[in-house]
Design brief:
With about 210 residues, the chain is of the alpha/beta class. It has 2 domains: about 70 residues, Ubiquitin-like (UB roll) (Roll); about 80 residues, Translation initiation factor 3 (IF-3), C-terminal domain (Translation Initiation Factor IF3), CATH 3.30.110. It is about 30% helix and about 25% strand. It is built from 5 helices and 8 strands; from the N terminus they run E-E-H-E-E-H-E-H-E-H-E-E-H. The protein has a 4-stranded mixed beta sheet. The protein has a 4-stranded mixed beta sheet with strand order 5-6-8-7. Pfam families: IF3_C (PF00707), IF3_N (PF05198).
Length: about 210
């Protein structure tokens, strides 16, 4: 049955279409050509369907004969699906120091891999204390190494960037990884590259002698 004009979700349908001529697409997707709007509306009513304008920018505007109730239901269903997918995506944060030991680094990489396979984004934060900010290049190197170790599962959404007393990197899961992770397989974990950290010598400023 044709839809009530008050429930059209902003679409121009049926008697709300005021232009004299329109280009008509049938319910099966076939092109019916240019028709008088009254004739097209009568054709839609004969089929107990609706005449819906889908493109008002063309000349003449394009309308389609469809079941608007079903069209609206499918539209709302897709919106709910999109919202559900958005709700599933969360950001997991991993924190570490740029002086992290190799074993602990491997633990962080494996944690990040699990999060990425679950469809979550991963925010990696390195926090500086005191004069450690002088060695921000070491933190950047470490984050770049982690991105490289996770390149099979992640895309670099935000490169390492210093923000205040932190350096932050954001990784997004590759869509192919998320899809395949839903299929049961023998669990495997990547082997992170051993990290090498130069020894840092902290020196206190000497007092001037008089």
């Amino acid at each position: 049955m044709p839809m009530d004009q008050k429930k059209n979700r902003g679409h121009v349908i049926n008697h709300s279409i005021r232009v004299p001529q329109i280009r008509v697409i049938g319910n099966d997707g076939g092109h019916l050509g240019i028709m008088d709007t009254r004739s097209a509306l009568s054709l839609a009513q004969e089929k107990e369907l609706d005449l819906v304008m889908i493109n008002d920018k063309s000349e003449p505007p394009v309308c389609r004969i469809i079941d608007y109730g079903k069209f609206k239901y499918d539209l709302e269903k897709q919106e709910r699906k999109n919202k559900k997918n958005q709700d599933k995506t969360s950001v997991k944060e991993l924190k570490m120091r740029y002086t992290i030991e190799d074993h602990d680094y491997k633990v962080r990489v494996n944690q990040a891999e699990r999060f990425l396979k679950s469809g979550d984004k991963v925010k990696v934060t390195i926090k500086f204390r005191g004069r450690e900010s002088q060695h921000s290049h070491l933190a950047e190197n470490l984050l770049n190494q982690m991105a490289k170790d996770l390149q099979e599962f992640a895309e670099l959404q935000q490169a390492p960037k210093k923000e205040g007393s932190n350096m932050i990197m954001l990784l997004s899961p590759k869509s192919a990884v998320v899809k395949t992770s839903t299929t049961p397989t023998n669990p495997t974990t990547s082997t992170p590259t051993p990290i090498t950290k130069p020894k840092l010598v902290e020196t206190e400023p000497s007092e001037a002698t008089v």
